[in-house]
Amino acid sequence: MNLHAKIWAERALLIFVLVMIVLVYFYVTTPALREVIRPHHCLFYQATGLLCPACGGTRAIGHLFDGNLPLALKSNALAVFSLPAIACGVLAAFRLVFDPSYGPSDIRISPYWLWSLPVLIIIFWIVRNLTYFSFLSPI
Amino acid sequence: MSDTKPVAVEASNNTLGIISLVAGIIGVILFFCCSYISVVLGVVALICGILGYQQKQQYAMAGIILGAISIVLGIIFIIVGQVFLREIMPIIQREMRMMRF
C-alpha cells in the first residue's frame, strides 16, 4: 500500500510538472491565449503600488523564448535565475519515476540552500522596490 | 587539553520535507499577489510532503498542511480576485489616496 502511494505520488509529481511546463509554454507564446485567460492584475500592486517578487515573471519567460536575455533579466531576474533550479527539479522527478534505484530518500540538497530560497525571495521583493535598484523593476 | 569529542551524527535526510515546507511557506506568502504560482507551489508542497511523510522526514506534515492552505487560498483568490479588483479595490485606493499612503 505504501509502495503504491509512493509510486502514485512520484508519477503525480512528474505529470504535474510536465503539464505545467506545457501550459506555461503555450500561455507565454500565444498572445491570443493571454488575452482570453488573463490573470487578474496583482492585487498587491493595485493596493500599494509596490512590486511583488513574481511581477514580470510571464514577461521574463516570454523574453527568454524570444532570446532576449537582458530584457528577461530586467523583467524578473529571479524567475530567470530560478530556471536552472526548476530544471533540476524536473530531472529529479523524471529520475524518481524512471530509475528504480533512485528513491525519494536519495534526493539530497543542503538545508541551507533550501532555506535561502524564501530569504532570497524576500530580499528580492524589498530590493526591486527601492529606487536605486530600479533596473530590477519591469515597469 | 581539548574538550572536543567525536560525536556520531546521524545523517538524516529531510530534503523532501524541507522542500515541501519551503514551497508551502512561499505559496502562502504569495497567495494574494500571485495566486496561480501559489496553487502550483501548493501542489508541489503537497506531493513532496506526501513523499517525505512516507520517509518519516521532518517538516513533511507541516509542508502538507501549508501546501493545502496555499492551494485553497490560491483558488479562492483566483475566483474572487476579479470581483475584489473591480468592486473593493477602488475603495481601498481612494482611502489610501486620502491617507496619502
Summarize the biggest pleated sheet of chain B. none
Number of strands of chain A: 0
End-to-end Cα distance of chain A, whole Å, is: 52 Å
The first-to-last residue Cα distance of chain B is 62 Å
Which geometry of chain B do the CA atoms define?
Answer: elongated
Structural class of chain A: mainly alpha
Largest sheet of chain A: none
Greatest chain-chain interface?
A-B, 35 and 38 residues
Q: Which stretches of chain A are low in confidence, meaning pLDDT under 50 for 5 or more residues running?
A: none
Write up this protein:
- The complex is a heterodimer of chains A (139) and B (101).
- Chain A has 139 residues and is mainly alpha-helical.
- Chain A has one domain (2-41, 55-112).
- In chain A, 69% of the residues lie in helices and 0% in strands.
- Chain A contains six helices and no strands.
- Chain A has helices at residues 2-29, 31-36, 43-48, 57-65, 69-98, 111-127.
- The longest helix of chain B has 40 residues, at 60-99.
- The radius of gyration of chain B is 20 Å and the shape is elongated.
- Chains A and B meet through helix 1, helix 3 and helix 6 of A and helix 1, helix 2 and helix 3 of B.
